[in-house]
Amino acid sequence: MAHSAAARCAGVSRLLPWQCRPRAHLSTTAFHLSSEKNNRTTSEPLSRRLKDEANTVIIGGGVVGTGLAYCLAKAGQKDVVLLEKTELTAGSTWHAAGLTTYYNPGINMKKVHWESFKVFKEVERETGQDVGFHGPGTIRLASTPERVDEFRYQMQRQGWHDAPQWLLTPEEVHEMHPLLNIDKVLMGLHNPGDGHIDPYSLTQAYAIGARMYGADVYQQTGVTGMSMRRDGSWNVDTQHGTIHAQKVVNAAGFWAHEIGQLCGLELPLVTVQHMYVVTGPIPEVKARKTELPVIRDLEASYYARQERDGLIIGPYERAELMKMQNHWVSDGVPPGFGKELFESDLDRISEYLEAAMDMIPAVRNADITRDVCGPITCTPNHLPLIGPYMAPGLRNYWLAAGVFGGVIHSGGLGKYLTHWIMNGEPPYDLTELDPNRFSESWCNRNFVAARCRESFGFNNIIIWPKDERPAGRPTTRVSGIYQTLLDKGAEMGFHSGWEQPNWFAKEGDTPGYRPSFRRTNWFHPVGRECELVLSRAGVIDLTPFGKFEVSGPDAASLLDYLFVNELPQVGRTRISHMLTTSGGVYAEMTVTRLGQDHFFLVTGSGSELHDLRWIENHVWKGGYDVTIANVTDDMGVLGIAGPRSRDVLAKLTSGDLSEEGFKFLSCQQLSLGGVRVRAVRISYTGELGWELYHAREDTARLYEALMSAGQEFGLGDFGTYAMGSLRLEKGFRGWGAEMTVDNNPLEAGLDSFIKMNKPADFIGKQALQQLQQEGLTRKLVCLTVEVEENGPDAEGNETIWHQGKVVGFTTSGAYGYQAQKSLALAYVPLHLTQPGTVVEVELLGSRRPATVQQGPLVQKP
Fold first, then answer.
1. What are phi and psi of 550, to 5 degrees?
2. Which member of 77, 501, 572, 582 has the greatest number of CB atoms within 10 A?
3. Rounded to an integer, what distance in angstroms lies between the CA atom of residue 856 and that of residue 783?
4. CB-based contact 608:431 (threshold 8 Å)
5. pTM of the prediction?
6. What's the CA gap between 634 and 620, in Å, rounded?
């Protein structure tokens, strides 16, 4: 390469919100005790009267709670109050290793990390409080070919983001970290500007800044009770009195579950133990003039960062070795637990320390001067719970909990929540953190514990595309044909607690999942299922759909206000979208009108409570007289699609299923094989098809009737992978991919669903009018991508290049079996949207030519 790794690191410092500090500023993080000179908050008992009124009460004085208090107060929110039961940093913050990184495999989380770095710099500058930041960079190590593939996979998803990231040869790795034994290192993944920060000093800076902007921070003030008033505001009880708050935020760390229980909530959180060791001085470290980069040895599952003249080494044990605080899961956190640690167990992490000694031989001669085993909070998928929480009758209750990486998330999540709290909508898409993704209806404590153990143990494993994790499955959310489909070879996917077939392995196929970043054992079976739907007919279990009934005198006016499309006539269905006030696509649903004031709404499995919360919030704010019933768990859904689907149904009903008798996007009540069905003529495959809604207990009977009637027509089963391929060939948009709050419906090509001239006003109308006046800067296009025989295919979030510059990103991708081409949907600048334009899609280290198409590859007459 033209320049050394060190030279390249120096060249990007201007791109980052923070530059590296010189070696002289190194200071201890573990058990940090700051002087009164530098830290202007105290843990003294409450010395002033508790406020009676507040706009927002934040419960928890760790790095997340204080970060939110700072961001809210700085943004101009008046009457922000933070309550801490003991002293700031108590819980998990005070003993954290303080790692900071721009890296995250989650696309949206990259922005959170980027924003956090900016907040760190801002709060230090504004308060004068040194936060102890060091930015020597991070190197992730690959020592297997599969990990090399993962690094290239992560690179293809990074190019359209702000922070620089690049690959290193083993020689470059050694140049940047000379203490490493690189015999087994195949590649490094480098994030310049990464490093670590002092969690104690950062928390103090947040608290100082919050007070500077008008917030009140009360220590030694524990919350003892909570109750919601009729108007949705809250009484928050403490040992020093009661505060009346318009909204509350539970940011209580590993106490968040207990705080939730004060108002009847069972939050999906458990406490796990994380252990690290601190070495004494290491001569090779002491001799250096610059700080060593942080190392993450992913195969051996540990991190190692410099701490003064030694190192901190922290492992993430595999599931069978990690330790959960089991009695806390069932009995709760002991009331007096604050700045305590657990008893260390070095035997539990001995193999990880041995691996660190192999990678960093100088460690073998170092003393372990300190070992730390402290509590951290975990959710079932390792991601935080961020946003307004929904439960029956609950209002104005927010979560900033389960933040496993609290330090690096604190600033970005503080800004994100601040925008949402003050503006009523999120600033960008972070649906993977939605606190309602784990519904109390199926997510019990056993599931949470099993899943958290698995997630912690998988902390450094390779993140494979389409991987499924088995812990805690199945839940209570299985359809009546779950076992039948398993017996027929279904490979199940997990969707909001539900089990749903991804694809079917038949005789001669390799069952299970063969991990790969390329086409693997599911590829040909999925093609077979696509051919089934295209030539005959297939049945798919769609029971995981979110399903709601909205009725009452104000039902029509409510939905007319929420949706950008016109409402359907009785007996008809429309595809409709809810927008944010800024014009982002908040949700896509089908709206079926069952009666003049009675509607049936259907959404995807991953957005059930996400969408319902939005609707109910506007019912509350607007005072609409409606009744909303969530019938998701009451109704089963089977989809049937393909040219012979009409023939199959005709054998089970005397109803008129002809083109005129049962039009596209219409709804009828049918009896199919003795099962009462609400049939909607629609299919996400783009083929002739129906969605058949019925009582959940009737699913098996309906399925058997369909299969029996369809035998002569070659009816079979298909899964979500085939449906995804078919929808891409038709150019159908997907929520969470082409449609998010980051995209407006005009650039997403949803013009036919936008009714700007309908009599009713709707949320987002003014934003769309402004967009129409100003014009768009990008549009969604369909690409055909030239790939190798075994892929990889695009799957979404790949970087798009044109003439050596990053110009956009993909949103979805798959192989189109009918088109016989690799496909992707992508956002590109307007000047690149002309059919025939050639761009490049980055796939596993190669920029593959991709051609903009006139429209969908397959168009139905």
1. -120, 125
2. 501
3. 9
4. no
5. 0.94
6. 25
